[in-house]
Design a protein that fits this description.
By secondary structure, this protein is an alpha/beta fold. The chain folds into 3 domains: 107 residues, 3-Layer(aba) Sandwich (Cobalt-precorrin-4 Transmethylase, domain 1); 84 residues, Rossmann fold; 96 residues, 4-hydroxy-3-methylbut-2-enyl diphosphate reductase, catalytic domain (Cobalt-precorrin-4 Transmethylase, domain 1). The protein contains 11 helices and 13 strands. Helix 3 links the parallel strand 4 and strand 5.
Length: 306
C-alpha cells in the first residue's frame, strides 16, 4: 500500500492554544477545573482532560460559584459571559482569535443596522456563540433554500459572516446566491473561514487525484473534519472519518493501492500515526509525506495562564 500523508493536517494554532491553556491551568490551579463545552471537538483530547479532573459543562449553572471556568476555543455568547460574572466565576478565555474576529464583525455590522446572515451549521458551538452577539439582527442559513427563503427588513442593508470551519466551495456557492438576491450585501467569507480549514482542504484537493480512498482522522462532532470528508467525496474519492485506528475497516481498502490520510484541526498527530501503523501492519505500507503549504501561525495563551 502507498500512503500519502497530507500536510498541513491536524492541530491548528487555535487548538494548540486552547489545549496548552488548559494544560497550564491544571498545572497552576489544579482540579476540578470547569470548561464551557468541549475544549476542542476531539473525543480523545476531551477524555484525556476528563481523566485529569476537568469537568465539561453545557450550562454555567453547573459550575459552583467562585470556581474557575475556561471558555472553549469555539467562543461563547455575551449571555454566557454575563451568567459567569453573576456566579463570580474566575474566567479563562481560550476563544480562538479567529472566532473572536467574527464576533467583532457581527457587533460592527449590528451597530450599523445591518441584517446579518450567518452561514453555518445550526447547533454548532461556534455558531451558538456568534449568534448570541446580535440575536435580533442575525439569521442563520445552511442551504441555498435557506437563502431563497430569506426575508429582511431592508434589502439594501444585508451583511454576511461565516462559521470559520466550513467548506470554502460550499460557502462560495451560498454567497453567490446571497449576492444574486441582495446585490449590495457586504461581507468577507473567505477571510472568515480560518487559514487552517482552507489549507487542509487545499492540501486534500491537491492530493486526492492520486488516491483510491481518503481517511480523515477526526471526531464526529468536528465540523472541519466533516468538511474534509465532504471535499474528498466531491473530488470523486471514497472518504471515511475515523476517531482512531480502531475504527479502520479492512473492506474500505479492497483493491486500493493508494490511501490519502489527513486530519481535522483538532485531531492529535499520534492518532494519525496510529492509523499509519495499523495500515502498515495489515497491508505493508510505503509512506510519502506531501506538504502543500507551511504553517507558522501561533496565538498567545490567555492572560490568566500566561
Amino acid at each position: 500500500m502507498r500512503i500519502l500523508l497530507a500536510s498541513p493536517r491536524g492541530f491548528c494554532a487555535g487548538v494548540n492554544m486552547a489545549i496548552e491553556a488548559l494544560d497550564r491551568a491544571l498545572e497552576l490551579f489544579g482540579a476540578p477545573l470547569y470548561v464551557f463545552h468541549e475544549i476542542v471537538h476531539n473525543r480523545h483530547v476531551v477524555e484525556r482532560f476528563r481523566r485529569q479532573g476537568v469537568v465539561f459543562v453545557n450550562d454555567v449553572d453547573e459550575v459552583p460559584n467562585g470556581s474557575r471556568l475556561m471558555y472553549s476555543a469555539h467562543g461563547i455568547s455575551p449571555a454566557v459571559h454575563r451568567a459567569a460574572q453573576e456566579r463570580q466565576l474566575q474566567v479563562i478565555d481560550a476563544t480562538c482569535p479567529l472566532v473572536r474576529k467574527v464576533h467583532l464583525q457581527a457587533l460592527r455590522f449590528a451597530r450599523k443596522g445591518y441584517t446579518i446572515v450567518l452561514i453555518g451549521h445550526r447547533g454548532h458551538d461556534e455558531v451558538v456563540g456568534t449568534m448570541g452577539e446580535a440575536p435580533e439582527q442575525m439569521i442563520l442559513v445552511e442551504t441555498l433554500e435557506d437563502v431563497d427563503r430569506l426575508e429582511v427588513p431592508d434589502p439594501e442593508k444585508v451583511a454576511y459572516l461565516t462559521q470559520t470551519t466550513l467548506s470554502v466551495d460550499e460557502v462560495q456557492g451560498l454567497v453567490k446566491r446571497l449576492q444574486e438576491r441582495f446585490p449590495n450585501c457586504v461581507g468577507s467569507p473567505k477571510e472568515d473561514i480560518c487559514y487552517a480549514t482552507q489549507n487542509r482542504q487545499e492540501a486534500l484537493k491537491a492530493l486526492a487525484p492520486q488516491a483510491d480512498v481518503v481517511l480523515v482522522v477526526g471526531s464526529r462532532n468536528s465540523s472541519n473534519s466533516n468538511r474534509l470528508v465532504d471535499v474528498a467525496r466531491e473530488q470523486g474519492v471514497p472518504a471515511y472519518l475515523v476517531d482512531d485506528a480502531g475504527e479502520l475497516e479492512s473492506d474500505w481498502f479492497d483493491g486500493c493501492e493508494t490511501v490519502l490520510i489527513t486530519a481535522g484541526a483538532s485531531a492529535p498527530e499520534e492518532l494519525v500515526m496510529e492509523c499509519v501503523a495499523e495500515l502498515d501492519r495489515r497491508f505493508g505500507a510505503a509512506v510519502e509525506r506531501h506538504s502543500i503549504r507551511e504553517e507558522d501561525v501561533t496565538f498567545l495563551l490567555p492572560l490568566e495562564v500566561r
